[in-house]
Amino acid sequence: MFKVIQRSVGPASLSLLTFKVYASPKKDSPHKASVKVNELSLYSVPEGQSKYVEETRTPLEESISHLRRYCEPYTSWCQEMYSQTKPRMQSLVQWGLGSYEYFQNAPPGFFPRLGVIGFAGIVGLLLARGSKIKKLVYPPGFMGLAASLYYPQQAIVFVQVSGEKLYDWGLRGYIVVEDLWKENFQKPGNVKNSPGNK
């Protein structure tokens, strides 16, 4: 039993050894010319011309191609709308985050003032029963009046800016109406100078 173990361990231990082998040409053999890479049979190029042949499309590939061509205008429209609305949505998100932070750290007395302003809007809705114009005018008017009591400086600035804008819009409207009046309702000549009255 000892001899069998010894013989089986010997060749296995030799396989773990590493050593270098140096080969030198024989002195009496003639020198051969080196073989080029393209002369080896492994790297030989097949004779003949290769030609690219496009594979025929399967019905599934045809239907997918047709679907892509059909959907291309819609996808490009969606990408365009996304690129246009993305900055607006980002600014809206930033405004929302800013408002959230403001409400988290609101100045003292802000929420009672906000409650009074909201209550004034509800009172405006109750007083505006029956008329659509009153429903459009009364709630914002009452809320603006309540807000101007708590924030008078901002109310003065708002009234000044909105007054200038209203004056500008009124002036533009007056100019448009005046031009329409001149074009449509004024006659080209005087009645005295007309050719029929000579």
UniProtKB/TrEMBL annotation:
The chain crosses the membrane at residues 110-128. Component of the MICOS complex, a large protein complex of the mitochondrial inner membrane that plays crucial roles in the maintenance of crista junctions, inner membrane architecture, and formation of contact sites to the outer membrane. The keyword Transmembrane applies. Component of the mitochondrial contact site and cristae organizing system (MICOS) complex. Keywords: Membrane, Mitochondrion, Mitochondrion inner membrane, Transmembrane, Transmembrane helix. This is MICOS complex subunit. The gene is APOO. The keyword Transmembrane helix applies. InterPro entries: MIC26/MIC27, MIC26/MIC27_animal. One of its GO terms (biological process) is cristae formation. It is found in: Mitochondrion inner membrane; Mitochondrion membrane. Belongs to the apolipoprotein O/MICOS complex subunit Mic27 family. GO terms for cellular component: cytosol; endoplasmic reticulum membrane; extracellular region; Golgi membrane; MICOS complex. It comes from the Eukaryota. It holds the Pfam family ApoO. It comes from Ursus americanus (American black bear).
